[in-house]
TrEMBL record:
Gene3D superfamilies from the UniProt entry: Sodium/glucose cotransporter
Family: Belongs to the sodium:solute symporter (SSF) (TC 2.A.21) family.
Entry-linked CDD domains: SLC5sbd_u3 (cd11479)
Superkingdom field: Bacteria
Protein's recorded name: Solute:Na+ symporter, SSS family protein
Native species: Streptomyces camponoticapitis
Amino acid sequence: MAVDYAVIVVYLAGMLAMGWWGMRRARSKSEFLVAGRRLGPWMYSGTMAAIVLGGASTIGGVGLGYQYGLSGAWMVFTIGLGLLALSVFFSARIARLKVYTVSEMLDLRYGGRAGLISGLVMWAYTLMLAVTSTIAYATIFDVLFDMHRTAAIILGGAIVVAYSALGGMWSITLTDMVQFVVKTIGVLLLLLPIAVVKAGGFAEMKAKLPTEYFDPLGIGGETIFTYVLIYTFGMLIGQDIWQRVFTARTDTTARWGGTVAGTYCLLYAIAGAVIGTAAKVLYPKLPSADDAFATIVKDELPPGVRGLVLAAALAAVMSTSSGALIACATVANNDIWARLRGLVGQRQTGRDAVGERDEVKDNRAFILVMGLAVICIAIALNDVVGALTVAYNLLVGGLLVPILGGLLWRRGTVQGALAAMIVGGLTVIGLMVSYGILANEPIYYGLLASLAVHVVVSLLTKPTDAAVLAAWRRRLAGEDAEGAEGADGAGDAPRKPSVAAGGTG
């Protein structure tokens, strides 16, 4: 394992070096949180693919292939479909808004007052996403170093927190590009063909496994439908995903770069299912399907290659963890803490370099605090699947309708949006208590309740002020966004109707 250890150590040292280099570039709030909105197509595609393909997509995707065969690809496949839908239909408009958070978008669209509740929901989602990604370090470090679970979480979490806090989005973008390359080589170009060859090829796999392992719908129609609701729609509204959209240099970059990343996700989904199916042939009686990835890597790959593939798994986990962490810190600072301190709507013009550095320090401090919380929760938490399911159910059930309603329906009002968030979120929570956390019913009925309440309340309340809608349309067209960014020194979105009516939003 000496060669494998060397590969992993070099990889981890490289991540820290990227963080240090990114610190030299992150001199303003815009540079720190959204990489100065300067990413071109190549870097944008790589970093977007890296953030959505985490430990669940790699280790979990292979596990689903082990359990269900080729239809195990559906979970990751629906993630790719969501990214494609976001990129084709919404990313250009989102990029032109020049905001930092989903809650700022809701305030722009509805004229304020929607941000705090949506910020709390989004913070809970990003926090649990970071926690579940951090827990995945334990699996990888256990295979590599036979390390205790707590030590593995602390080691992996400390590295991610360090490079994220040092350089913010610039560091995360650079590390994500390395992680994207490592994942492509390790999983697609090495593990996939080696696993198929070791299993005797596709003909031998078909001969040894039941026919349902090769049925594209073998996992079940209801399961696929639930994946679409949770993951496809989750891709449309998650702060961790939107924050990457905000990094695009142009709306064209956001559209086409995201389309490339979404297509890559579809290929990654199929690869994971095929690897899992091959593992079923080689190890038909594993105690847990999630052990399939680590087992086939440990037993079937030669030294050096094994280290690279494990580095690929580590890369997948780190990219999702760092993306969720900076999203969590951004929401906590900009959407929750600032509002609770009464700083909402206070626009600072002529902010000097010291003020800019202070904002960077504030956001860096929030990454450190949120990172420490993530590590502590990850050490204490056992039910990873349950925690992630709760997070996604709250996200989709509480925020999908207000966000898509704001983007697609002119008649939606702030009262309708707030009612949809509250009713959708409470419905999901109540039904999870009644049916169980992993049941499908909470997300089904939560979405229906949120949609019904949004439509009814919006139609029964006064339409959104015409000046707010006019400012919103100008912002969507990119006409006011540059001026707003310059006025703030960082692109802060206005949150009071009077500001929007004044034409500066």
